[in-house]
């Protein structure tokens, strides 16, 4: 019955989309000699320019988003809030980002992919500047929440752009490079924040991230090609709702969305609260030293592109349980009392996370046949909802059971994610 409903919805949606596309492309119909624009392939100069721009987009998104993560112990000290309260600096951003993503994909259908992404990044950078100068904790949280709304115009639209403009042979590595950019942004957001904070304070660190985001917006504006395989059409809320309903009735997509929730939640929870463990005895590390530990993000940057290309050989449904297993292993290693083992655990967790995210997001783009931007929005809604919910819930487990309680929570979620990925593989539900 569910399958029949999905077919009915697809039949209702397809004529609307086809009509819109036909109206836009009608002037070309009489010019048979004009070939359809080719998709971007690996090894071409255009591929390099496009991925440099998308890499910058991913960099800025995660730098703005996660620069507050290593600062949470300082927020607790400066504003007299608990660990769970300090986590709102990130959870409010990711929570509003998750909700806004449900509309952002549809808005990009009307405004265009590139203008939406560049505008979102410029607005987010401006909010970052304001958050660095406002003195009250409540005002700071408001700016962080608004930043989540502004940033929603970038991640899902970027995934849709890759799915539309890249040749299928180049999709995996292009998505891996984009995710690698988010890795470098996440690392810089944490590492530079720690160094600048020790030198000039946390407000200067947040301002630095905002300035970097402006530079990334300029790179996107200059080098990202305009969409060639996308047709603008007005925002149609009824059609948008039907597209979401169709994707939620798909036999595979909802499970991929669930994987996004679990893998992001587990990863963010570990990174949120590892700072509380490392600033306390017996480690007693400074912000700079904690920031330097996050240089293991380089492992994620390298591995995301490599795993993205590896998925074309092994297959995404085979690779996903392996990368999720690495996340679980890394989480367990952070339970050790040895600093080298903890750093190794963070590195393994990071490699597994970026590999899992790269594989899962590419699977969503490949699987969605109707409304790629909306499918990407639903995946990232689940992804950032996991970051928000599990990221804050980790503070409760930290207060109740310390690092042991936190890692038991995270490990349990990742075990569920592994079981889901194995079930998808066993039942043949793949992209």
From TrEMBL:
Keywords: Cell membrane, Membrane, Transmembrane, Transmembrane helix, Transport. SUPFAM superfamilies: MFS general substrate transporter. It holds the Pfam family MFS_1. It is found in: Cell membrane. It is a multi-pass membrane protein. It comes from the Bacteria. Its main location: membrane. Coiled coil: none annotated. Residues 46-429 form the Major facilitator superfamily (MFS) profile domain. The chain crosses the membrane at residues 52-72, 84-104, 116-134, 140-163, 170-188, 200-224, 252-274, 286-307, 319-336, 342-366, 378-400, 406-424. Belongs to the major facilitator superfamily. This is MFS transporter.
């Amino acid at each position: 019955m569910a399958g029949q409903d999905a077919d009915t919805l697809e039949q209702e949606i397809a004529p609307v989309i086809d009509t819109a596309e036909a109206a836009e492309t009608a002037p070309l119909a009489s010019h048979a000699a004009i070939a359809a624009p080719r998709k971007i392939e690996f090894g071409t100069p255009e591929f390099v320019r496009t991925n440099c721009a998308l890499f910058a987009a991913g960099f800025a998104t995660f730098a703005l988003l996660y620069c507050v993560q290593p600062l949470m112990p300082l927020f607790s000290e400066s504003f007299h809030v608990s660990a769970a309260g300090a986590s709102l600096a990130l959870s409010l951003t990711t929570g509003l980002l998750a909700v806004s993503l449900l509309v952002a994909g549809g808005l990009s259908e009307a405004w265009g992919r590139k203008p939406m992404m560049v505008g979102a990044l410029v607005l987010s950078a401006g909010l970052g500047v304001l958050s660095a100068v406002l003195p009250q904790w409540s005002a700071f949280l408001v700016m962080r929440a608004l930043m989540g709304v502004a940033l929603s115009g970038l991640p899902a639209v970027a995934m849709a752009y890759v799915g539309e403009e890249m040749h299928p042979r180049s999709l995996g590595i292009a998505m891996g490079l984009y995710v690698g950019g988010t890795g470098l942004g996440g690392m810089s957001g944490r590492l530079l924040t720690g160094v600048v904070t020790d030198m000039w304070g946390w407000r200067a660190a947040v301002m630095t991230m905002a300035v970097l985001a402006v530079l990334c917006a300029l790179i996107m504006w200059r080098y990202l090609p305009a969409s060639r395989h996308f047709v603008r059409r007005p925002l149609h809320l009824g059609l948008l709702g039907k597209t979401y309903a169709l994707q939620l009735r798909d036999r595979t997509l909802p499970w991929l969305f669930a994987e996004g929730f679990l893998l992001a939640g587990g990863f963010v929870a570990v990174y949120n609260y590892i700072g509380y463990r490392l600033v306390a005895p017996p480690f007693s590390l400074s912000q700079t030293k904690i920031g330097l530990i996050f240089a293991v993000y380089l492992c994620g940057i390298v591995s995301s592109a490599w795993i993205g290309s590896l998925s074309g050989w092994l297959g995404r449904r085979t690779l996903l349980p392996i990368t999720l297993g690495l996340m679980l292993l890394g989480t367990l290693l952070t339970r050790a009392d040895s600093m080298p083992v903890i750093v190794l655990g963070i590195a393994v967790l990071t490699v597994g996370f970026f590999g899992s995210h790269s594989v899962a997001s590419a699977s969503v783009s490949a699987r969605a046949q109707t409304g790629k931007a909306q499918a990407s929005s639903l995946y990232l809604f689940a992804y950032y909802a996991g970051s928000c919910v599990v990221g804050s819930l980790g503070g409760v487990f930290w207060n109740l059971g310390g690092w042991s309680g936190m890692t038991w929570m995270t490990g349990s979620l990742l075990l569920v994610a592994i079981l889901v990925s194995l079930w998808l593989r066993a039942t043949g539900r793949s992209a």
